[in-house]
Amino acid sequence: MTRRRDWLRTVLGAGAATFGGLAAGEEPSTATRRTARRPLLPDPSRNALRPVIEPWESRPPDDPRAKALLEAVREKYKLPGLVGAIVKGSAVVSVAATGVRKAGGDDPIRPTDQVHIGSCTKAMTATLIGTLFEEGLLSASSTLAGVFPEYADRMHPDFREATLSHLLTHRAGLPHDADWWNLPGVTPTQKRYAALAELCSVAPRSIPGRKYEYSNAGYVLAGLMAEHVAGASWEDMTRARIFEPLNMYSAGFGPPGLDGSSRETQPYGHQWALGGPKPIRHDNPPVMGPAGTVHCSILDWAKFGIAHLRGERPGGKLLQPSTYRDLHTAAPGAEYAGGWLVLDRPWAGGAALNHAGSNTMWMANVWLAPARDFGVLAATNMGGGPTMKAADEAVGALIGHYSATFAG
Which domains does the chain have, with CATH numbers? Predict the structure, then answer.
């Protein structure tokens, strides 16, 4: 609890008045809460250790047939690069990459390159929150006013009882986005508190719980709930509770190659301009992290996919089967659960989990079929235009390839 108080003081202390919530120097409430049992901070010595790899990682299963299928999609839509993977059970059984890292160049994109997964980050945020459910620090019924009592008087009354479940399922009445680039504050967390004050001071677009409206803002506030009760940043907790347990060594935040040491060894994102793809290394602002700023290799993303693919079975990673089941179950009449669309598909043998994501410079798409124990993932280093359709065709081609080659 002391550590949480210190963290809150550091984040909000002297600049608290900026956020319209607390007077300078005033601390948020430290009402009795349970203590986090799992790590909140990444291990600083981890990068110096010998990497722990999955058995299939020693020789990633390069697949010429998958590469040909992806190349047909890439050529059809004039994409710079395209990568894809197929998972079966607890392993990646196929991976392929085609095209280039940067339009106009000849450096090929590789399966080990980082890709930006955009809103597919939301499933990671929901999973992180699942760890806090299991520790009793949050619950699906936690409300905005209950978690942030210091802000309750400044909230519109209809937002006070908006729950974490409403945020995670896009039913909180929030707009799609806030004015992310112009929020006050220095750190991403400070800006998230500013977003809370700004977004919840006006009437919701609909009464929380009544209407589905996709909202990046909802996931930013859900991530802030996690930060507030745990006393650590969303970025640190995501590293400590998602990336490190799954050995996602390539994972980070922002555009691939943001780290100067790897800048020219990672792909560029692209936007369509003047009749062709224009390279750009950029991303949405860091405040939006919980809604969509993760990058990682498609192989590391597949590890996260496998965790959800097999999560409802005994012996899964990160969460208990019952918690995964909750994250995979949409409310009656709804299709969005905890970071996933839940859609019935014949090829999946029932419910499939799906999400797509784009920061407008990348496009990513993932489908998981838990009943048949397989999934597919694809990403291209271009956003906008026809890239959503291209990503759909890429995963469709990989699903067909799985059925013809790996099923059974």
Answer: 2-15+135-240 (3.40.710.10), 59-123+249-405 (3.40.710.10)
Distance of CA 390 to the CA centre of its chain: 21
* pLDDT less than 70: residues of the chain: 1-35, 45-50, 259-263
Averaged pLDDT of the chain: 91
- Full-model pTM: 0.92
pLDDT digits (tens, 9 = 90+) for 112-138: 999 999 999 999 999 999 999 999 999
Query: In the numeric block, which tokens belong to residue 95?
Result: 């991976």
Model confidence over 9-59: pLDDT tens digits? Answer: 556 653 333 333 333 223 344 444 456 778 888 887 666 556 788 888 888
